[in-house]
Amino acid sequence: MATTTHPDPGAIGGVPKPPLAILPDPDSLFARRANRFGFLAEHDPRLGPYLAFLADLTALQARLIDELPEPDPITRDRIELARASRMPPIDRDLQATDEVLHETLTVLCHEALSLEMPEPAKLALQAVVSADLADRHWLLENLLSDRIPEDSAAPHLFAAAAVQVHMARLASMLDAEALVPIRTGICPACGGRPVTSQITATQGIENLRYATCACCATRWNEVRVKCLSCASTKGISYRSVETEKATVKAEVCSECDSWVKVLYLVDNHSLDPVADDVASLGLDLMMKDTGFSRAGLNAYLAGY
Amino acid sequence: MNIDLSRRSFLRLAGAGVAATSLGAMGFGEAEAAEAAHVRAFKLTTTTETRNTCPYCSVACGIIMYSEGDVKAGETAEIMHIEGDADHPTNRGTLCPKGAALKDFVKAPTRLTRPRYRAAGATEFQDITWDQALDKIARAMKDDRDANLVQTNEDGVAVNRWTTTGFLAASATTNETAWLTYKAVRSTGIVGFDNQARV
């Protein structure tokens, strides 16, 4: 609390400049997300089992942060080169062979064996655990290029959990100030695509939109009412389930016929970019019939 | 390519089966089906968020207008909410009390939507045509200018000053419109004048 009675006009006149990017904090990111998954699981009688499983998996991600070896930070030369060429500093192609990422995948999958899950999930997990180097590389390479083959969504789900942990830790080591905007819908830290975007409620950046990277969880500022897939500002509309005030909407672009979810944190600050994406599967199911295709990436919702 | 195929089939056979979604592949197909059955009872509504400029003053703050229904899709749209556009460099989402009350301005039953006229001494407004309205305004301006135009100042220097009439022009215009408005109004001598070109 301020102890002085002198007025501070600075607080009134100052309009803060929104930061381009907000880097993830792995220590709190996964723990919070696990809580949110847990809360949603308790309150959703239909998707509950899946959300509860993801709560366990995310809690495992949170726990491993302290146990895994530190990834090698991106070198200063690399960051300078990326800045000069207006490219993201993290080259995801190089990460597919990164030793720490491979160890993250191995450790995460071994630990995940003790989680409760249905038989098909367990089989897929065992397959990843016993996969050779080339197979693991194939999984990681797919995820790092935003690709999930439709016939192997389950093994990719576990690999995605490992990629999320590794990339969030790597991104958290960057300097947010040194990032440059790449292009609409492209993460300035790793070049990834968004999972969802959020209308923020944080003081100073209220009502602005930040997209969350599906790969490294960096949040970056995007102009509102703009397609995150093709950057068009024409023909944008929103679809939501008929309610008085929807907090999750599909931002539909009639120029490229795709859509990405927008979460209104201004109306509910508990929403999580990944957990609430899964919990609002109903919207995806309804959007399937509209002819528009989902552009938000989420390895927990492959096939939508 | 053969190698790739065998690798894929290994992982596929090991876990996923033929299910095309994460939920199906992970064995949560039942939950997925329950959700699909649940949403069948609901419909999607369309809302829009449209950028515009606050019409009040020359600062020209950015606003976002929230509507239910999509005019572009042939539906009727109804404005539900108006707020400052946080992306707009001028106001960064803030609005003054007048701008913050814009929805009531749009929906006001007394909002002027056509030219109307109240004769001197009358209590009621009557509808008139645009031609009649513009003729009346031109007549009133001409009479006032003829009576009150200042053509020389105290030192006897020629000036063009018309101080008895004021002019308030639009805030949401292009540079070209603002320039033309300025030219037209200033050349009549009007000094009490505001439009976007001021800022």
From TrEMBL, chain A:
HAMAP family in the cross-refs: FdeH
Cell compartment(s), UniProt: Cytoplasm
Ranges for domain FdhE central: 186-224
Species, as recorded: Paracoccus homiensis
Protein's GO biological process: protein maturation
One of the record's GO cellular component terms: cytosol
InterPro entries membership: FdhE-like_sf, FdhE_C, FdhE_central, FdhE_N, Formate_DH_accessory
KW Cytoplasm (keyword) present: yes
Function description: Necessary for formate dehydrogenase activity.
Predominant localisation class: cytoplasm
Molecular function GO terms recorded: ferric iron binding
Family to which the UniProt record says this protein belongs: Belongs to the FdhE family.
Domain (FdhE N-terminal) ranges: 18-182
Protein keywords: Cytoplasm
Domain (FdhE C-terminal): residue spans on this chain: 225-301
The protein's name: Protein FdhE homolog
Protein origin, superkingdom: Bacteria
UniProtKB/TrEMBL annotation, chain B:
InterPro entries reported for this sequence: Mopterin_OxRdtase_4Fe-4S_dom (IPR006963), MopterinOxRdtase_cofactor_BS (IPR027467), TAT_signal (IPR006311), TAT_signal_bac_arc (IPR019546)
Cofactor(s) the protein requires to work: [4Fe-4S] cluster
A Pfam family it matches: Molybdop_Fe4S4
Main localisation: other
Domain of life: Bacteria
Keyword match rRNA-binding: no
SUPFAM superfamilies listed in its UniProt record: Formate dehydrogenase/DMSO reductase, domains 1-3
UniProtKB keywords: 4Fe-4S, Iron, Iron-sulfur, Metal-binding, Oxidoreductase
GO cellular component terms, semicolon-separated: cell envelope
NCBIfam families given in the database record: TAT_signal_seq
Family that this chain belongs to: Belongs to the prokaryotic molybdopterin-containing oxidoreductase family.
Protein name as annotated: Formate dehydrogenase (Quinone-dependent) catalytic subunit
